[in-house]
Design goal:
The protein is α/β, with parallel strands linked by helices. The protein contains 11 helices and 18 strands.
């Protein structure tokens, strides 16, 4: 068997951030990715908060800056939110993940595509993955909300989810591109929101719901046509998936196996966002693994657990949102000081990381980015 210090399952944001840092720290690293291309079947809309680019430097050509949020009530009223010096980044997510995979490879990690993880054995000294002929001192599961690593080693598993659906459309001139548009609509998406994002060469339209309810994407698209005058012709791509909404899991490691990212519940149960957390905790996992292997430090999962958010406050708010207040409540609330303060805190609180990445969904395709690049060079959207 080929021996590695670290084997990571999943070429996700968490997995690739972990792989690059671990390789730069001198660990022998392999990433097992079931897809043939890390940018295929992406499970995130790819909206980043400002803090995310403090965790990794991202090529500007893969992003589009959005400085403000517009929250829409069901009846048509809206409130605009912003914070000086703050912004969100829409991304060409498939291209971004391909870039991260290349960066991990340049650092010395091996990204092994087309390699599904099925089973492994923790012998006490190594974790052996027999069907791939490799073994690792530490196995890290970064393989998403339904982690096979978690199943194999009887670790904690996500039980609470939001169900999300998103469509990609051609850019719409009628959509005000200054804003990340969020829609309160319990009738179409109980327990969460809908969104319309002027992205990188596309427009992203989606919504999510809690309680096992399938959100009404067709009704939402029709509402956007009627209210904002958008054409929203044939979708260019469709994505759907489950978003962990139960906060960080209690049992995220056993022996020489640990979980990070969505697999560990490193996702805000309130917003469904987690990219900034996965980037940060992926890097920290690698740093702590290097300390453990080279210097006999604490087990990386134990040390990481001390730095991992528990989302207790957001979990309480999630339970309130799961009650799905009727639309008239949102209409009555949106003009009040209390609503504006709560919305401002959600999107821009503390280090302003309330909306820490859009819902992790599944993508099928991407479209050319020439128009977005033209806009960036001319100065719009930056």
């Amino acid at each position: 068997m080929r021996e590695y210090d670290l084997v990571i399952v999943g070429a996700s944001f968490a997995g690739l951030a972990c792989a690059r840092t671990a390789a730069m720290r001198g660990l022998r690293v392999a990433v097992l990715e079931r897809k043939d291309d890390p940018g295929e079947g992406v499970r995130t809309t790819g909206i980043l908060v400002k803090e995310a680019i403090e965790e990794t430097d991202i090529p500007v050509g893969l992003t589009r800056m959005i400085r403000e949020v517009r929250v829409h009530a069901p009846g048509g009223r809206s409130v605009d939110l912003s914070s000086p010096g703050y912004f969100f980044l829409a991304t060409d997510t498939p291209a971004l993940l391909r870039w991260m995979a290349r960066e991990a490879t340049r650092a010395g990690a091996q990204v092994l595509t087309g390699r599904s993880f099925r089973s492994a054995l923790d012998t006490g000294s190594f974790v052996e993955i027999a069907d791939h002929g490799i073994k690792a001192r530490l196995l890290v599961g970064a393989d998403g909300a339904g982690s096979q690593v978690a199943r194999q080693f009887a670790l904690g598993r996500n039980r609470a989810f939001l169900c999300g659906i998103e469509l990609e459309f051609a850019p719409e001139p009628a959509l005000d591109e200054r804003f990340l548009h969020c829609f309160l609509t319990s009738s179409l998406a109980p327990g969460y929101i809908g969104w319309a994002v002027p992205g990188v060469g596309i427009m992203q339209v989606g919504l999510a719901a809690s309680g096992g309810v399938r959100p009404d994407i067709n009704g939402f698209v029709e509402m956007l046509r009627r209210r904002l005058g958008l054409r929203l012709e044939e979708p260019l791509a469709r994505r759907s998936g489950l978003i962990p909404a139960g906060a960080t899991l209690k049992r995220t490691h056993a022996g020489r196996v640990m979980l990070i990212g969505d697999a560990a519940g490193h996702v805000s149960p309130l917003t469904g966002g987690g990219i900034v957390q996965t980037l940060r905790l992926g890097r920290r996992c690698a740093q702590l693994a290097a300390d453990w292997i080279f210097a006999g430090g604490d087990h990386p999962a134990v040390a990481l657990g001390e730095e991992t958010p528990r989302f207790r406050g957001k979990l309480m708010l999630r339970r309130l949102l799961d009650l799905a207040p009727p639309d008239w409540v949102w209409d009555a609330a949106i003009g009040t000081w209390a609503f504006r303060s709560l919305a401002q805190a959600t999107y821009f609180h503390a280090r302003r990381q309330g909306f820490d990445g859009a819902p992790p969904l599944a993508a099928q395709e991407q479209m050319p980015r020439a128009e977005s690049e033209r806009q960036r060079r001319s100065g719009s959207g930056s």
